[in-house]
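ok so I'm stuck.
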Amino acid sequence: VQLQASGGGLVQPGGSLRLSCAASGSIFSIDVMGWYRQAPGNWRELVATSTSGGSTNYAASVKGRFTISRDNAMNTLYLHMNSLKPEDTAVYYCNARDIIDKNYWGKGTLVTVSS
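replied:
not stuck anymore, here's the structure
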């Protein structure tokens, strides 16, 4: 499975951004997809996940502001980010986990929230 994330950039506090993650390869084996982020000096942390059954899960820090969605026809995962805060600044990584719990990671995309 190969993952290609895009959509990062510089945005002002309170602004919005949409990240995309295109999946290719053995996508039939993917069960869970998600977004993680890593700020400088911090561990990588979960942002949101979406299962093949349609369940979603969010970190408390982003709940109500971020929305994860999947376009299965396009093999693409999205993260819609609203009301962005400076503390959301991080490198965002796309993740896929297959049916035997093997993890795949894409290269990150940098999101910077600053005025």
